Every structure is written in structure tokens, then in C-alpha cells.
Amino acid sequence: MIASILYVIIGLILLVIGGEFLVRSSVALSFRLKLSRMVIGLTVVSFATSAPELLVSIQAALDGLSDISLGNVVGSNIANIGLVLGITAIIGPLAIDKDFYKFNWPVMVLLSFILYLFLQNDATLTKFEGLILLLSLLVYLFLLIRRARKSSDAMAEEVDDSLQKTSNFKIIIWLLIGGAALYFGSELLVSGAETIAKKMGVSEGVIAVTLIAVGTSVPELAASVIAALKQEKAISLGNLIGSNIFNIASVLGITSLIQPIAVKDETLMSVNIYWMLGFAMILLPLAFIPKKMILGRPKGLLIFAAYCIFIALVFIE
Asked: pLDDT digit string (tens) for 248-264?
């Protein structure tokens, strides 16, 4: 058991390191390809930061542990709102922009319901359904870039300008380190999580929506908390919603194209997916009631308390 916990901890550390190196190398490579800072911020960074979830889901699906693939994404989407957004709002109020309810939020809710319908239909995410999710991501990115061009240089502040001067040798080394860390990190995490689930007498799905989901959300949580404590513009609602969109459309889309994902844990469809839909839906009324376009401490406490209840119920079940 101790070895398995160690595997999970080392796996998570490697995923964080791998994700960081992949983001750096991807951004540096994008500058070399003469992509604009806006496009890099909206697409390359988003893809790279979803890499840990993607590698874990693919590894789990190939190992026949589809509950980890689905649980990881469902749990991460719940954690991004309940844990990351909740704690960030408790530390400091978050301003909500109009793009939230006009574009990002409807896309997240739509994709969440599409995922629910796909799984409800035959308890399997097929290759064809994965292709639909992936194509929907491409449409979302096209519209996102078009909207951003009309407004300001959106997301550009997230792109590190110093990476423009990175040498080709450094980019290759970073890519190799990032790729290796993500690969071995996902191997260790999935292997350790499977053993812990067996030893504790719970399903892999339970471990996936709690331990693995929180673990793969740690980078977002750390970035949000640091920004909030510095009283800078904390991680935006749009970023977290974007992460949830990428989790469903790219992580599950790509994973199911490689290996169809079957629902084995009934709790996922009878309980957990409704929590994911609930967290997604509650954001709209919270954006307007009682104080418009501000996500303050009371709302943050409410979301975080709901997340704590979810975690408690997962283990009680």
C-alpha cells in the first residue's frame, strides 16, 4: 500500500513537471512557427495544460481501466469548479466577463450534456462519438479565435515572451523531458491508483474522481491561489471553463478514438455525472445572484462546501 501511495505521489509530481516542460516547449515552438501570441494563448497553452489528463486517460483506457479514464475527466471538471474556483473566490473576489455567459459557459454545458447523452445511450464512448467531440473542439477553437480577434489580444498575458528566444536544442530537450515525465508519470499514477482502489475495497472510479482528479487539477489550483494571494488578476473563470471544455472534447475525444471507453462503474452515471452537470449549471445563477458579475467569498464558500459534500458522498457510496 505504501509503495502504491508513493507511485501516485511520484506520478503526480512527474505529471506536473511534464506538463510544465510541455507548455514551455510548445509555446517556444509556436513562436518559431510565427503563430500570434493570441493563438498560442488560446490553443497551444490550453492543449499543453490538458496533457496530464490526456496521458492518464489514454494509459487507463489501454490498460482496460475505463473507469479511470472517465472518472478522471468527470472528477477534474468538478474539481476545477468546486475546488479551484471555490478556493480562489474565497481568497479574493473574481470578476466575470460577458464572454462567460455569451460563449464559454453555453459551450461547456452543451458538451457536458452531449457527453451525458453519449454515455446514457449505450454506456460506451465509441470512436465515432469521440470523433464528434474532437470535431466540436475544432469548431469551438475556430469561434474562440475569431471572437478574440474582434476583441483584445486575449490570453496573451499568459504567454511568456522570453520563450521567443529559446534555441532549437532547448526546445527538443524540453519536449523530450516533458514527454518522458508525462509518460512515466501516467504509468505510475494509473498503476498506483488501481492498487490503492483494490486495497481500500473501492472502485477505480472512486479513486479517479477524487485522488487522480484533484492531482491533475493541482497546477490550476496552485496558479490560482498564488495569483489570488498576490492580489493579481486571479485565474479567470474563462480559463477554468476552457479547461473543462478541453477535458471533455480533447481528452475523452482523443482517448475514445484510440480505445472506446466503456462505463463499468454504475455510480459514474447514476451519481457523479449529475454532480458534474450540476456544478456546470450552477455557475450561471451564481454569476447574477445576488451581486451581478462578481464571484465573491460567499459564493466561493458555497461552491467549495458543495465540493466537500461531493467528496464525502463518493466514499460513503
From this structure: 999 999 999 999 999 98
